[in-house]
Amino acid sequence: MRIRLTLYMAIIVWLVERGNTMINLFISKAEMIRTLGLSAELNYVENGIINTYSTKFPYRVDTNISQVAFSWNTKVLDRKIAYKLRAIAGDNAVLPVILIPHRGYLPTSTEGEYF
Predict the structure, then answer these.
(1) Is residue 112 a part of any domain in this protein?
(2) Residues of the chain with pLDDT > 70: what percent?
(3) What region holds the WIF domain (predicted)?
(4) How many CA atoms within 13 Å lie on the side-chain side of 57?
C-alpha cells in the first residue's frame, strides 16, 4: 500500500501560512513499530516547520496494514486553532479515510493512535 501525504501537507501548509500555529504532525514511534517495524518517530511538521525531507518519500507498508494513524497537536494554548479537512485521493486504489471530524480545533495534547 502506498500512502501520500498531499492532503495532510496542504492542510498544514495552509495552517502554517496563516500564522504561528506551532503545529506538530507525525507518526508516533508506536505506530512506526506497528506499521514498518522501525523504532523511530516520523515528523512531518514540528513546531510549525514542515520537514520537507520526510514528505519526499511515500510511506510504504505491507498489504496487511489497512490503516496508518497520524498524531497531531498544537503548542498554542492562548487561543483555539481551527482546522478544516477534505480527503483527496491521488490513487483510487488507496482511498483516504479520515476518522476525525472534518472541521474543528487542533488539540493541545497529542491525539492519534486510535487502533
Answers:
(1) no
(2) 73
(3) 25-115
(4) 9
Confidence class of residue 29 from pLDDT cuts 50, 70 and 90?
Answer: very high
State the Cα angle at 34 between 29 and 37, rounded to 5°: 80
CB 41 within 8 A of CB 28: yes
- Which residues constitute the domain of residue 85? 2-105
Q: Which residue has the cell 497531531?
A: 72
Q: How many domains does the chain have?
A: 1
Give me 108's grid cell. 493541545
Please give the Cα distance from 22 to 92 (Å, whole number): 33
Q: Residues for the chain: how many in total?
A: 115
Q: Cβ(4)–Cβ(43) under 8 Å?
A: no
Average pLDDT over residues 91-102: 75
Mean pLDDT of 7-25: 61
Domain annotation covers residue 87 = yes
CA distance 78 to 32: 32
pTM (predicted TM-score): 0.74
3-state secondary structure of 60: strand
Whether 115 is covered by a domain: the verdict is no
